[in-house]
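Dissemination and training. As part of the outreach component of the grant, students in the summer workshop were shown how a complex can be specified as a set of sequence lines and then modelled as a single object. The example used during the hands-on session is reproduced here so that future cohorts can follow it. Participants entered these lines:
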Amino acid sequence: MQSFTEENYLKTIYYLANRQQGEVSTNALAEMTATKAASVTDMLRKLADKQLIHYKKYQGVRLTEEGERLALQIIRRHRLWEVFLVDKLGFRWDQVHEMAEELEHIRSEELVERLDTFLGHPQFDPHGDPIPTPAGQMPVTGYQKLSEVVVGEPVQLMGVLEHSTEFLQHLDRSNLTLGCTVVVQEVNTFDRSVLVQLVGDRTVFISYEVAKNLLVNQPAG
Amino acid sequence: MQSFTEENYLKTIYYLANRQQGEVSTNALAEMTATKAASVTDMLRKLADKQLIHYKKYQGVRLTEEGERLALQIIRRHRLWEVFLVDKLGFRWDQVHEMAEELEHIRSEELVERLDTFLGHPQFDPHGDPIPTPAGQMPVTGYQKLSEVVVGEPVQLMGVLEHSTEFLQHLDRSNLTLGCTVVVQEVNTFDRSVLVQLVGDRTVFISYEVAKNLLVNQPAG
DNA sequence: CTAAAAATTTAGACTTGTCTAAATTTTTAT
DNA sequence: ATAAAAATTTAGACAAGTCTAAATTTTTAG
Ligand SMILES: [Mn+2]
Ligand SMILES: [Mn+2]
Ligand SMILES: [Mn+2]
Ligand SMILES: [Mn+2]
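and obtained this result:
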């Protein structure tokens, strides 16, 4: 049984490992968890003792199989609670992350599985992130960033890489919602901003900063 | 902002104060929280510093107005989550207490109020306990114990005083569900056990140990 | 290759909530 | 009324998780 803190470290290691190559560094963890490197080192020793991470001093860290299984379980809980908060309680997608940060630590296998059933076995959370399976597998999605899409290709908005309230509210104000279809009309080489056609709606200007945080999917075909 | 531990102490003080007269003792708190008296003393000093309790050394403890408001807020959350677990997720009434012990500490005013709305503003939890108002008022119920009901009076089963899994499952096995109407047919003076007629069903034998933990209401009239 | 910079770990300390053992206060019983 | 018992508090300690400052190791640059 892990503490809240240990669970948060596991989850953070998982995220960092999946957005760089190779081992996760002490400093990266310190920044992400808003603590100091010395504190991270202490925790890494503890997680290594519990066989949840592979850890060699000065060499960075990697989850063990068991550690990854636990991390995915926590992410599953987080994302299911986010679906609950949006679908059932009517929160907006920019309001739910902090509450899910607490709810994800509620410990009961049966609670999570009943919640999953109650929600209709959703595949994605309100931000388009895939929900890991009960067995601890992360579904793979073949999404690419909107910033990499070529002119003329109709694509569907499937997810976001940035989860801050500010970013999500900015998307709302731009009428960009998950599932909507867009066509890139123009890419400015100077600042890499793009002009997109919201199918059945208006045209929207999207900065590179925003475009590189939007995930899209080619519609079938 | 209080820690989980502080919240649990406040809740426990509230419960103990409402089932005895006057001040709550250090030992009673130690037993209820499964800690030692010395630990309780330390916490009482902290809660007194925060003005959540009235505390004089050796003289027992009493909630301040603010302390009571917080205690009732926590009890409100606990009971609403229990309703959610039973009504929405389909748990049995004997399965939900432990999960609610964790869920009650999730901090978000808006979450609780949206949950309340989602559940249809329930007045009672799955054990018949009244749900405190958002403003922190505990509704009063004029229930009496089944052990005090006289022969011949039809009464309705409204709540339980004991919440253990064993007790609740025992009631299930006896076909005693909240809301059912019963008539006491016989009271054995020797052991105070009672024989009751389950209206529209069979006759059930109820020991004093069980009867004194069942709360009933006179049906209108 | 080697010295400076950067990253990481170690040492020692603090906070929260807990404990045991000892001291103190209150209650109970003769 | 007073001694014994019971309840409570104090003293000193510990584990978890954090911090700052100092020491160590690795990386980077010249
Ligand atoms: Mn989130
Ligand atoms: Mn999410
Ligand atoms: Mn309960
Ligand atoms: Mn209850």
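The CA atoms of residues 167 and 210 of chain A lie 8 Å apart. Students were then asked to discuss how this feature might be tested experimentally.
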